[in-house]
Design a protein that fits this description.
This protein has about 220 residues and is an alpha/beta fold. It has five helices and eleven strands, in the order βββββαβαβαβββαβα. The strands form four sheets. The protein has a five-stranded parallel sheet with strand order 5-11-10-6-7, sandwiched between helices. A two-stranded antiparallel sheet has the order 1-2. A two-stranded antiparallel sheet has the order 3-4. The longest helix is centred in the middle third of the chain and has 13 residues. It is globular and about 55 Å long.
């Protein structure tokens, strides 16, 4: 599906929503030299993503720790699995825009509901990692239900992934194993790896680059 854009300021593109707004002011801290902000949908409402404009801003305390105990907080590899694409921030932003228009693209915050409620990336929905992880007690019928939400059809014996949605997962950062665990579970069930994406930087790099967050809701 083609993505439509509208101009928010000279040389600035954002996801197109039908609304009449005054031209935005030019930002001192852009995303790239030609992109200042993007607009996505979060729980049905438009939200603008941009970077913090205070050039002396520092990272939020929750994401300033450098040396969490490993295990379990061990540095993840660059790839979550064969065929799964790892995304940087610009590629991730493009998927956030696509997800606002295309129901076949879903951005998933794999963290727990409490973390999600404190703040998440605009456009993400919450599916705590434990709900897909059989080793921590995930209910097979509930997992089957989540797969159905992602376009996967179960005929009573086999899964049909031909209409599976593109899923973009993230969690707390390069040291967080929640979303990689879910990605391995999904590929183990047969989910096509080319329809799985991983934002490895997660919440820590999102905060480090000064991007805004929103409170997670339902």
């Amino acid at each position: 599906m083609a993505i439509r854009y509208r101009f928010l300021a000279p040389g600035v593109l954002a996801f197109g929503l039908a609304s009449a707004q005054a031209p935005a002011q030019s930002l001192e801290v852009g995303i790239t030299s030609s992109l200042e902000r993007v607009e996505v949908l979060h729980e049905g409402e438009p939200v603008v993503i941009q970077r913090e404009q205070d050039t002396f801003n520092t990272v939020a305390p929750d994401f300033s720790m450098t040396s969490r105990p490993c295990p379990p907080y061990c540095i993840q590899p660059m790839r979550a699995g064969p065929g799964i694409e790892t995304l940087g921030e610009l590629e991730f932003l493009a998927y956030l825009q696509r997800a606002s228009e295309d129901p076949d693209v879903v951005v998933i915050d794999s963290r727990g509901a409490d973390e999600y409620a404190r703040g998440t990336i605009p456009g993400a929905l919450n599916l705590p990692w434990q709900r897909l992880h059989f080793a921590t007690g995930a209910d097979p019928e509930e997992v089957q239900g989540h797969l159905a939400d992602f376009g996967v059809v179960f005929d009573g014996e086999f899964y049909d992934f031909s209409q599976a949605k593109t899923l973009v997962l993230f969690c707390n950062g390069p040291w967080c194993g929640q979303s990689p665990t879910n990605l391995r579970t999904l590929t183990g069930l047969g989910y096509p790896p080319e329809r799985l994406k991983w934002y490895r930087g997660g919440m820590q790099l999102w905060h480090l680059l000064g991007f805004n967050t929103v409170p997670g809701g339902s």
